[in-house]
Design brief:
single chain, alpha/beta, Rossmann fold, 2 domains, 4-stranded antiparallel sheet, 8 helices, 14 strands, phosphorelay response regulator activity, Response regulator transcription factor, transcription cis-regulatory region binding, DNA-binding
Length: 231
């Protein structure tokens, strides 16, 4: 794997240095920031492909910082790494487009496995069409954006993007949760049904803005289906 730029935002000095050195050994080009202020400067300078953020920081919080980063770059992979195992924060992070949420303590290898799977999923999107149109609904996979029937454009996280592409690829067929997990998370990952549902929420809202064209439905106990009513 060629080196990818990665911004690590962690205020615990020992942990930050350990993570930085480990990720560098895995061929990531890592820069470390200990505060929100420092992270903003480094993000603007390096425009990283990946940002790993702690949530509790001395001068702010990682959720708000990630929201700022998302406005600056729709393509940066966002991942939270925190001791705060709060379901509300987890959902808030996913809603703004974060790819994953790792709770401390964790094994270093677990973090790199998660990154590998995220990046593998990201590569899938690079070979697909630039644009899908369903009436007034538009999906730009390379831009990680969708446009609803009212013309509002929203950003997608990496997993949301990969899920939508998979549903489009299998349009009018049921995509099982097992298939979704294997292709997007990897066979050794075990996201809960609620985690997957959280990713589906924004996609369903997008489709529901023009149900004459597309509907995303849940098939109880199995998975999801994108029903395309076009020709």
């Amino acid at each position: 794997m060629s080196e990818l730029s990665l911004l690590l935002v962690e205020d615990e000095a020992n942990l930050g240095q350990t993570l930085r050195d480990y990720l560098r050994s895995k061929k990531f080009n890592v820069d470390l920031a200990a505060t929100c202020a420092e992270a903003r400067v480094k993000f603007a300078q390096m425009r990283p492909a990946i940002a790993i953020l702690d949530i509790g920081l001395p001068d702010g919080d990682g959720i708000s910082l990630a929201r700022e980063f998302r406005k600056l770059s729709k393509e940066c992979v966002l991942l939270f790494c925190t001791a705060l195992n709060d379901p509300t924060l987890r959902v808030e992070g996913l809603e703004l487009g974060a790819e994953d949420y790792v709770t401390k303590p964790f094994e270093l290898k677990e973090l790199t496995l998660r990154l590998d799977r995220i990046l593998k999923s990201r590569q899938i999107t690079l070979h697909n069409p630039d644009e899908y149109r369903y009436g007034k609904l538009v999906f730009w996979p390379k831009r990680f954006e969708i446009q609803d029937a009212d013309g509002h454009i929203s950003s997608l996280g990496q997993k949301e993007c990969a899920i939508l592409e998979l549903l489009i690829e299998k349009k009018n067929e049921v995509v099982s949760r097992d298939e979704m997990i294997e292709k997007i998370w990897g066979e050794n990952s075990f996201p809960t049904n609620r985690t997957i549902d959280n990713y589906i929420v924004k996609l369903r809202k997008w489709a529901d803005s023009d149900t004459s064209q597309v509907q995303i439905t849940s098939v109880r106990g199995i998975g999801y289906k994108l029903e395309w009513k076009g020709h």
